[in-house]
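Entry 12.
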Amino acid sequence: MNSPSLLILCGVILVLFLSSIQKTNIGANPFSKKGLAVSILIGGIFGLIIRQFLFKNMQLIRQLRNANLLLEEKVKERTKKLNEQNKLLEEISNTDSLTSVANRRFLDLFLSIECKRLSRNTSSLSLIMCDIDHFKIFNDIYGHQAGDECLKKVAVALLSLARRGTDCVARYGGEEFIIVLPDTKIELAVHVAETARKAVENLCIPHEKPAKDKIVTMSFGVASISSEDRNYIDPSILISKADDALYMAKEAGRNRVIESKII
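Predicted 3D structure (tokens):
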């Protein structure tokens, strides 16, 4: 039985029921031919009214459902855009604007997290401090724009050596960079530093100051701590030791790698 017939039948039954109770003008016997005909007529009209009412309600429900689906899509799209914008803002706030490596703010946070992780695990944490040799003189000779280009090229060379997702290359300040190598012993860190030293040499950036090769070079200081050195697991100690080693590399003639052990 289709929907209109079902509604009409329901209307007839309802009219007959009301007539039998209230004994309206349909007659004393609502099941007589006359009463039945009137009941069918009234029931049909009543059924059509109900059908129209339900039809309009169904249309309204569909419209509301479609509106909700559209709203959900817009909310999802807006949320996605906001997440992308937030991610971009976070990257900008953590990145050095000139060299595109991590900035000092991110470095401090990264080192703090890695030192805390080291204190809970059995591992090693190494840090390489890098400094471009005679960079002030380079700027004086070639200008600050050339100096900026030099910094960018050196940053790219250093980034190429930090192949693991856990490694971090950051600009520490001016012409100084830091490479943080989690889960890395000092022997491997020294090897990475030596590879970086050669990579900077291979850039062949002209520089009048160095007496030997007449190119830009870089000095490196390496320090490392392990989970066994509980009293020395501190970012400031690690940076200080690497800086001491860098100073020794500078004093020894530059363009070299020197390591410093915490204990």
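Annotation: The CA atoms of residues 138 and 207 lie 7 Å apart. Confidence is low (pLDDT under 50) at residues 24-28.
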